[in-house]
């Protein structure tokens, strides 16, 4: 590869990063020729929020709630989304560090690759909070999330309640996302004793590359073909993968007949609860995690002590952690959970 070609490729990638950052930032456009904090008052915390993607509905809610709460506390915030690229996410971290952020809050695209962000940030004395997804194999400063093993437990428990015996399928998330591993661990803690008893046969146990619903749909189609459509229940890791699974079931006339779990209480997923094609979702109150993470980041930026309630080992250290409680949602509990919290409205859910 020629030096010219290398320089051209680097220049192109940097241009992409700048464009992505401009599109996804909540702050006003900064002068990239000056590596200084966007505001001159050093007493005002400047917080960077790095998202893996904005291609899934839920992350827009996190973004808006997090930004609003940081601003209400008196801080400034800039959000950048990497659209599923580890290289872009690392470069976005570099950009924010050069602009003078006091702390980075990161939803990593890849749990292990996120360690490079932590290493880079620490070289510049910037602390890192891992948001919802754990950054592994790093000296991460803090982690805030929901009890993700419990998410898997809730999913499998509800499906088993509906279908206590038969041929089950597990459709997980991206194997590179530590949360996906935890969801699976939680689900199998419920399913494995029933597998051992012979009540359940696990036909397939499969991760879904990039959490892509189309990949989940294709995987489910292959499982249906191989089993001659003899599938009785599906534990799917989130509402996106559930949607892909239900599309595959629909093609063979099984949508609404085979119980399917989900997670995130996305509008499409909740509408499927109403329609009867999806059995349950797991609601992780986004206002709770977004506001608590904003408060944590603000306190870290101000060098104030942080109170956590547990630690999680990230394969390198025990990370100070705050874990929040998820809750199951079925067709019968939509109004008493997500509607009551104002997460979604009845008009949005029941509108035809």
Briefly say what this structure is:
With 352 residues, the chain is of the alpha/beta class. It is built from 12 helices and 12 strands. It is found in: Cell envelope.
Task: List SSEs in N-to-C order.
Answer: HEHEHEHEEHEHEHEHHEHEEEHH
Q: What proportion of the residues form beta strands (DSSP E)?
A: 15-25%
Per CATH, what is the topology of the largest domain?
Rossmann fold
Strand order of the largest sheet: 2-1-3-4-5-11-10
The helicity comes to: 40-55%
> How confident overall, as mean pLDDT?
90
Largest sheet: 7 strands, mixed
The figure for the number of domains is 2
How many strands?
12
Give me the Rg, rounded.
21 Å
Tally of contiguous helical segments: 12
Q: What is the architecture of the largest domain at the second tier of CATH?
A: 3-Layer(aba) Sandwich
Going by CATH, what is the homologous superfamily of the largest domain?
A: Response regulator
Molecular shape: globular
Stretches with pLDDT under 50, minimum 5 residues: 1-36
Structural class: alpha/beta
Can you characterise this structure?
The chain has helices at 3-24, 57-73, 86-99, 114-123, 148-162, 178-197, 213-226, 239-251, 267-275, 286-301, 335-339, 346-350, and strands at residues 46-51, 76-81, 103-106, 127-131, 142-146, 166-171, 200-206, 233-236, 281-283, 310-313, 318-324, 327-329. It is an alpha/beta fold and 352 residues long. It folds into two domains: 3-140 and 286-324, Response regulator (Rossmann fold, 3-Layer(aba) Sandwich); 148-284 and 328-350, Response regulator (Rossmann fold, 3-Layer(aba) Sandwich). The strands form three sheets. A seven-stranded mixed β-sheet has the order 2-1-3-4-5-11-10, sandwiched between helices. Strands 7-6-8 form a three-stranded parallel β-sheet, with helices on both faces. The protein has a two-stranded antiparallel sheet with strand order 9-12. Mean pLDDT is 90; it is low at 1-36.
């Amino acid at each position: 590869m020629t030096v010219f070609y290398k320089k051209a490729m680097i220049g192109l990638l940097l241009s992409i990063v700048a464009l992505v950052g401009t599109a996804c930032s909540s702050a006003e456009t900064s002068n990239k020729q000056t590596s200084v904090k966007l505001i001159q008052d050093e007493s005002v915390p400047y917080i960077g929020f790095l998202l893996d993607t904005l291609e899934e509905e839920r992350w827009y809610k996190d973004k808006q709630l997090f930004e609003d709460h940081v601003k209400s506390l008196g801080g400034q915030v800039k959000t950048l989304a990497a659209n599923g690229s580890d290289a872009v996410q690392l470069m976005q971290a570099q950009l924010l560090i050069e602009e003078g952020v006091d702390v980075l809050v990161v939803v990593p695209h890849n749990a292990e690759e996120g360690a490079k962000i932590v290493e880079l940030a620490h070289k510049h004395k910037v602390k890192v909070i891992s948001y919802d997804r754990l950054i592994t194999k790093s000296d991460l400063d803090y982690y805030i999330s929901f009890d993700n093993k419990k998410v898997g437990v809730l999913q499998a428990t509800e499906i088993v309640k509906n279908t206590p015996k038969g041929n089950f399928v597990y459709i997980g998330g991206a194997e590179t996302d530590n949360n996906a591993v935890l969801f699976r661990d939680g689900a199998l803690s419920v399913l494995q004793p029933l597998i051992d008893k012979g009540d359940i046969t696990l036909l397939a146990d499969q991760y879904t590359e990039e959490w892509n619903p189309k990949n989940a749909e294709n995987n489910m189609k292959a499982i249906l073909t191989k089993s001659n459509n003899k599938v009785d229940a599906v534990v799917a890791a989130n509402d996106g993968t559930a949607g892909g699974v239900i599309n595959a079931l629909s093609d063979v006339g099984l949508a609404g007949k085979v119980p399917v779990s989900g997670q995130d209480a996305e509008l499409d997923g909740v509408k499927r609860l109403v329609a009867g094609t999806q059995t349950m979702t797991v609601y992780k109150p986004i206002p709770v995690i977004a506001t608590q993470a904003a408060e944590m980041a603000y306190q870290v930026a101000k060098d104030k002590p942080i109170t956590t309630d547990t630690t999680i080992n990230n394969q390198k250290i025990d990370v100070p952690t705050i874990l929040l409680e998820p809750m199951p949602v079925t067709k019968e509990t939509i109004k008493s959970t997500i509607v009551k919290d104002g997460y979604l409205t009845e008009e949005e859910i029941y509108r035809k």
